[in-house]
Design brief:
The protein is α/β, with parallel strands linked by helices. The chain is 41% helix and 19% strand.
């Protein structure tokens, strides 16, 4: 007898994303809906025609409604709690959640390989597929590419993408790989662990919350994996464009928070000290390029990070911190990229 597919919820968080639902949801429905897999839209109080479009064209798809725009982190937390509660009441809890951005084109049988990898190893807490660019399908996509790492000063980077250098996919990352973090654009996660450990940190609102979650899982002894046999194409920047000062603010503030929560004590003070100078340098570069709002966003981010310190301290005390994690490098990616000229992952020292 064929074994039943593990009960999985693919959940798309939507906020005023009608254009993406119209463009990509029919493909998601075609290539995702199968026995054992439910596709659900979680709506963050949209004011456009998103829900009317779904109700007219996909009345069979379940919609979970948040009362207001909760952001990415809290929006998912509230929706997934409700989804699991209803599943349990119906007799069978979800084993896996898939957090899927609305601006992604999926491919046939994209769910199965990642779930199979997680089924084969119970220590895998989360995983991601290969993420390529929707606009140039030969290239990796910025937000996750072929799995995420972090350098010794707390800067995230990916196989396939370092800063603004994005590699062409030639099959160089077609082997599964243990990483530190998996992209939030298509995050496969064990539902019980997600709910047990509080899901995404709601104080992040959006950006880097998936890095924080994955790092927390690694600190608890779990693995994060990249599975290349599943391929997705991501538009990226659909909610906040790359040039957004608010995005700059969130990235700088949240990066400091995830370091404060997760770094081992003996590294924490040194890294945060170095980041004062590096963040000032980044702000200066924004100013020199005429980006005054981004310049101000860096200092506002640092101010709010200090304001959040007490809350982050309480979170830190509740978490284990571990040395020698897979995916944390002992080198500076800034030095490697800008000084050494190593702009692709394969040219870097071993992580």
């Amino acid at each position: 007898m064929m074994q039943a597919f593990p009960k999985t919820a693919v959940v798309i968080l939507n906020w005023n994303g009608q254009k993406f639902l119209e463009q990509f949801f029919p493909i998601v429905a075609e290539h995702t809906c199968r026995e054992g897999v439910d596709v659900i839209v979680a709506d963050n109080a949209s004011t456009d025609g998103s829900l009317a479009y779904m109700q007219k064209n996909f009345p069979q798809i379940k919609i979970v409604r948040n009362a207001r725009n909760e952001g990415f982190a809290s929006g998912y937390n509230l929706a997934l709690q409700q989804i699991q509660k209803e599943a349990v009441a119906g007799g069978e809890a979800y084993k896996y959640f898939v957090l899927l951005n609305s601006d992604i084109e999926v491919t046939p049988h994209w769910v199965e390989p990642v779930v199979a990898a997680m089924e084969a190893d119970s220590s895998i807490a989360a995983a991601q597929p290969k993420l390529l660019s929707y606009y140039d399908k030969k290239c990796f996509e910025y937000a996750g590419a072929a799995g995420g790492f972090i350098d010794k000063l707390g800067y995230p980077f990916c196989r396939g993408r370092i800063f603004d250098t994005v590699e062409t996919d030639t099959g160089q990352y077609d082997t599964p790989c243990q990483v530190l973090w998996a992209t939030g654009a298509a995050l496969f996660v064990r539902a019980d662990l997600y709910l047990q450990y509080g899901g995404l940190d709601a104080d992040f609102f959006a950006h880097m919350e998936e890095i924080d979650f994955c790092w927390r899982m690694c600190n608890r002894g779990y693995k994060i994996m990249y599975e290349p046999s599943s391929v997705l194409y991501h538009v990226g920047g659909g909610t906040l464009p790359k040039t957004s000062a608010h995005k700059t603010y969130l990235n700088f503030r949240n990066n400091l928070s995830l370091l404060y929560k997760n770094l081992p004590q003996k590294r924490l003070r040194k890294v945060l000290f170095m980041r004062v100078f590096l963040d000032f340098l980044a702000a200066l570069m924004f100013l020199l390029h005429g980006e005054k709002e981004n310049f101000k966003a860096v200092f506002r981010a640092r101010k709010d990070f200090r304001r959040m310190k007490a809350a982050n301290q309480a979170k830190r005390q509740a978490l284990p911190q571990r040395e020698d994690l897979v995916g944390v490098s002992d080198y500076s990616i800034l030095w490697q990229y800008h000084i050494k000229g190593r702009k692709v992952f394969s040219s870097l020292p071993t992580v």
